[in-house]
Amino acid sequence: MVSCVDCSCSNTPKNKSLGITFHSFPKDSEKNKLWKNFVNKPNWTPTRTSVLCSQHFTNECFDRTSMLKVRLHPNALPTIKVDRLKYVRTFNPLQLTSIESSEYQDEPLPGPSIKTETDLVINPCTDDTPHQIHLERKIMDLVKRDALRTIQIRKLHKIIWRQKKVINSLKTIVCLLKNKKLTDG
């Protein structure tokens, strides 16, 4: 079974359904050195079977023109670090452009700021540690779960309301039948 040398994710049906692909280290010695530096394991050299998963590359690195195969562009370099413990995606700071020079320097809106998942992956705050990013993702997941539970509760309330309505109508029918002395009780 194939597994990523950096984050240890493997070629499972779940990962296949998520679209995770695995890519061999380049044969070019300079690119191979850059990939090896990205993995950052002391005294480690990539073997012929060493691969990195697609989670470590941005979408621009892929050639998806083929219907059968996903390929990396020849100049593709891994830039996204995936934390081994919690699989938190963070960018490699060596490959980032300065966030301060970005055109997104608007004043913050009043009230609490909630980062979306794409903000965490595409525009990470330089002060955020992987642990903070992981916690923010957990908060987002909990907010989503809360919204789904609220919807489920509303649906259950409607079902209960309908059942109470049916019970009340059946009670009235039973009372009418008792009044007409058609039942024994």
Poorly predicted tracts of residues:
85-124
Structural class: mainly alpha
Query: Could you state the order of secondary-structure elements as H and E?
Result: HEHEEEEEHH
Main sheet: strands, sense, barrel: 2 strands, antiparallel
* Count of alpha/pi helices: 4
Number of DSSP E strands? 6
Q: Spatial order of the strands in the main sheet?
A: 1-2
The percentage helix is: 25-40%
Average predicted local confidence, pLDDT: 75
Radius of gyration: 28 Å
Beta-strand content: 5-15%
- What does the oligomeric state look like here? single chain
Properties at a glance:
185 residues; mainly alpha; 39% helix; 9% strand; elongated
Provide structural commentary.
This protein has about 180 residues and is mainly alpha-helical. The chain contains four helices and six strands, in the order H-E-H-E-E-E-E-E-H-H. The chain has a two-stranded antiparallel ribbon. Strands 3-4 form a two-stranded antiparallel sheet. The chain is elongated, with a radius of gyration of 28 Å. The termini are far apart. The relative contact order is 0.08. Mean pLDDT is about 75; it is low at about 85-125.
